[in-house]
Amino acid sequence: KMAADTSVEILQKVLENEILQTTKVVEEHLDAEIQKLDQMDEDELECLKQRRLEALKKAQQQKQEWLAKGHGEYREIPSERDFFQEVKESKNVVCHFYRDTTFRCQIMDKHLTILAKKHVETKFLKLNAEKSPFLCERLRIKIIPTLALVKDGKTQDYVVGFTDLGNTDDFTTEALEWRLGCADIINYSGNLMDPPFQSQKKFGTHFTKLDKKTIRGKKYDSDSDDD
């Protein structure tokens, strides 16, 4: 028992020492930065300010370019031909393959509308799967809804049904944002190692496995393209 206590104490001391060392390094770094600023003359400060302004101007210019290409809003495109044109002119594209009769597509629409406004760096589109048989076959889209995540004109990843989103119809916009962040199709500022829906697990099996549900008298399966 005493030996165990001693080893715990040693471990604690080592940890405390590590934390102190880290804090010291951070403080030293900050001190150096402050000192650097203090020692700057007016010309150098002016130069720094100009660089900061340039960066802001560039970011604003980039945003305007994205908006001109149809970013910033969630749009429906009429045909397969439009899909190729749209993905050619934007680096990051999320395209929702939907069907009017599939209830879950409406759930997806709601979240994508929010994310399109928030993530102007990415283009958010929807395309009717029934009007795009060639694309659906080429991209092997069998389940509706499916999101095709296109980077530099190439489809890199898919979000198929709601499996990756906590396997529930009640998934949050944050859960979808996290999943798109994992695919590096949006600039995600959260922690990718910490999915926002993990806390839902405490509610039991409802979130891990979805049973058949009835909506408007119709039965549908979790992640099925049958209504």
TrEMBL record:
Its main location: cytoplasm. Residues 53-181 form the Thioredoxin domain. Signal peptide: none annotated. It is found in: Cytoplasm, Cytoskeleton, Microtubule organizing center, Centrosome; Midbody; Nucleus. PROSITE patterns: THIOREDOXIN_2. This is Thioredoxin domain-containing protein 9. Keywords: Cytoplasm, Cytoskeleton, Nucleus, Phosphoprotein.
